[in-house]
Amino acid sequence: MAAKSMTLLWGSGSCPCWRAMIALEEKNLQGYNHKLLSFDKMEHKSQQVLDINPRGQLPSFKHGDNIVNDSYAICFYLESQFQNQGNRLIPDAAEERALMYQRMFEGQSFYEKLNNVIYYDLFVPEEERHASALSRNKEALKAELGLWEAHLQKSPGSFLAGSSFSLADVVVFPTMAYLFRFGLSEGRYPKLGEYYALLKDRPSIKASWPPHWLENPKGHEALKDF
Amino acid sequence: MAKDMTLLWGSGSPPCWRVQIALEEKNLQGYNQKLLSFEKGEHKSKEVLEINPRGQLPAFKHGKIILNESYAACLYLENQFKSQGTQLIPEGAAEVGLMYQLIFEAQPLAQKIGEVLYYNWKVPEGERHDSAVQRNKEALKEEMKIWEGHLQGCGDFLVGKSFSLADVIIFPVFAYFIRNGGSEERYPNVAAYYKKLRDRPSIKKTWPPTWIDGPGMGTLKDI
Fold first, then answer.
1. Global pTM?
2. Which of A111, A120, A143, B133 is most buried by a 10 A CB count?
């Protein structure tokens, strides 16, 4: 069984890890070997991770001898190798497929802008921090949220690429979930709220929901005033 | 087919170059194209914003389809035109896995080059710190060492024995590094790969026009 020759090292709440786990669920690859590691305890820099991923980052993923560590790479790899099992994650129709690719890569900009706000203090050493920079990052994220609200308004269906769930949703949903975890108002961003509500109970997403979010249902408030 | 395509691009931009290489490799010569100037702010012009509200290049249209991210455009072109031109996605799980791994690993490489080259452009004067500049340079050095390692024992191409999306996407980044003063002595494997591919027809034909006029800035010479 293919899943038995797979190993995923992951951390709870990491969007990249979550993307890989959603993809594995969607492709019916439950049963893969996995190990939950702690970023706080620096376990992502441990030997077992470095043996698979010299960059000391999570997710780290092996399928037999094939090592694929980047979350988008894992998603594309799994869909290409297991196209005919589980859910099809890349649409056949050219327009839908193109929209999927477009949203996936815009999703990287989205994720980066979110991190530049919620992880500002983690990324920037204390002596280099400026209120003006954080303020600018918040404005950039607000603009980005506006773009995604508009994307969802214009989408031909309820999912990012149209009427079917695709790799665009696999890679972008975790970022959306983060917005609400950090207090974003569904009232002010109704389309984002609808999208989140639609997908949060999808089996693959529910099955891979960050365990520490379940333990601590109360999130953070960094985006409450957006 | 190519007649229904339009590419708005800027010279010397690795993302734009990738799409041009992919179009050549897939035998889609004859697409409509317009060279715009970043310096004159033309990437923020109405004609770009109509295709790409983010005001970035490349901006690419194929009929009603719009793809403004270079990876998205390259993946779309390979999948849509699989049976013509060069096959850009290999067969076999190991090579497919390696190809996807490398193209996404290339993103931190491109980003770190940008953090060094564009520091003063991205960071307002009151927010600049020598400590940040130093850190960015160290990070790029470390990243280049990783790639020098990846290319150890590499054949003519990044993945296996054939030209693939990995080369489409990553060659422009190495060329950009070298153009901006990156050392061929310190990174001999990168330099060798660069020299092997720079005369490939799709690459030669789309070589940035602004690079033909003379040498670039040596900003990266100490990396």
1. 0.97
2. A111
